[in-house]
Design goal:
By secondary structure, the chain is an alpha+beta fold. Among the domains are: 80-218, no CATH class; 293-425, no CATH class; 440-527, Gyrase A, domain 2 (2-Layer Sandwich), CATH 3.30.1360. It is built from 22 helices and eight strands. It has helices spanning 2-25, 27-46, 49-54, 61-79, 81-93, 98-122, 150-167, 184-218, 223-234, 241-250, 267-278, 288-292, 296-317, 323-340, 344-347, 355-374, 386-392, 402-425, 440-445, 449-459, 488-492, 515-527, and strands spanning 137-140, 143-146, 256-259, 262-265, 466-471, 475-480, 498-503, 506-510. It has a four-stranded antiparallel beta sheet. Strands 1-2 form a two-stranded antiparallel ribbon. β7 (498-503) and β8 form a beta hairpin. α2 packs antiparallel against α4 (61-79), α5 (81-93) packs across α6 (98-122) and α6 crosses α7. The longest helix has 35 residues, at 184-218. The protein is globular and about 75 Å long.
Length: 529
Amino acid sequence: MANTNETALNKKQAWKENIQRFGRSLLLPIGIMAPVGLLLGLSGALTQGYMIEKVTFLNNDVLQTIFKTIRSMSNIIFGNIPLMFAMGVAYGMSKKDKGIAVFSSVMGYLILIASINTWLGLTGNMADSKEMAVKGQIMVLGMQTLNVNVLGGIIAGLIGSWATDRFYNLELPTAFAFFAGRKSVPLITMIGCIIVGFTLPFLWQYFVTALSSISHLLLHDILGPILNTFTNRLLIPFGLHHVWNAMLRFTPAGGTYMIEGKEYIGYLSAENEILFKLGPNSPYWEMMPKLTRFGAQNQMVRTLFMFPAIGLAMYQTAYEQNKKLAKGLIITVVLTAVLGNVTEPLEFTFLFIAPMLYILYCGISTVVAIALHFMGTAVGYIRGTIFDFIIFGPMYENSRWYNIVIVGIFAALASYFLFKWYIVKFDVKTPGREEDASADNELIKNKQYDKIAALVIEAMGGKENITSVENCITRLRMDFKDKTKIDRAKIRETGSTGVFFPSGNHIHVVFGPMVEFIRNAVDEEMAKK
């Protein structure tokens, strides 16, 4: 009986870790989309007729050619987002050979859409050009297929990573030896995608119906912002908020919209069409507040107003002798959010030591989302940096960007006074309120990544206790054998702003944007004999 329970527990932990790995795998394509979207937004704004009328120097053939070229290149990226997700998921999910996994996922995605195309032809379901949008079909790489969007890329990526880890070392009889090992992986991936390609159309209608039923709640004027904001923020500690965001952006859960007779699935594709092509003077601009309520405008209030206010509250409640040390950390994590939209470093300074404070933070964020929606705010896109605010706010007519400032001021005041009161009232050990001031930040400040790596490995119980090392945008993620060997106090010496265990044999160590350099140093240290 004990063995049965242990097996069930191990399976549950493995499932959680795979879900977390999947969430992390979405970061790579999303990370590419963000800067490309910034270019697309800037070039789109600067080529709009209303913008050229306002800023006369933009009425220049050379400048317009440059901007239109940038927009055209950016559109190519956005036109092939599913392929990006196929590669990103394969890279993130594969443990054995990421290169062959990515290659196989691309082959698999091409075969997947080709298989669906064949199914549509064989069953007589191929829609003519005028009915494609109504019947949920689309042209992808010259092939007419179901508009499975990003899901198709994710499926191909998952099959490619599975085939890699399972068959990269496959042995075959001598007569077929040429197709053995890694060369078998693309073939197996393609076979898997053929099966999915001929099965998916039968299941697709039920999948769309299920997500559409969720959208009734998510698209509600009040319940939608509440459900979305709380769920998004509460999933942050587990790294699953990326999965949630992707669902809203690319599936019917985020709504299905008709624009000029064409169907758009998920709020982001519809937002892209209106924001980058039709413009603020289009009659479809009235749809924007419904689309943007899930995206950047809510994050902008957090990063540009709430975070500086929370940082100020932390600084003012720090012990006087620790304020100089706390100041450097607080400024860094606030600027990381303002300039890079990376929020975890600041959130993790209070999430694990004061969960109720995090609930208050989620509550303020929810009120912000509801207020912006009802005020008709239409500041688009997916990131909340100062750059995105300027490009998608003041540079776009009818965006009502000033609502972000109005709501942001009230949110900042509420955040400042609530955080300051709570920290003092319950003696929360935010930065600068530790009994012993330490030099945690010196290693980070001086970029001594080799020393940080050595400390991390030592704190983890040595190389032999570490089974895998990965990272996302802000966190070093490690699997280990024995939890009792881990020294959390020593991990603090590295300059980490947070440590937690999302599952039994998995640890997250929060470092912020420099985590990739730390991960590289850890890999180098692990490779030493």
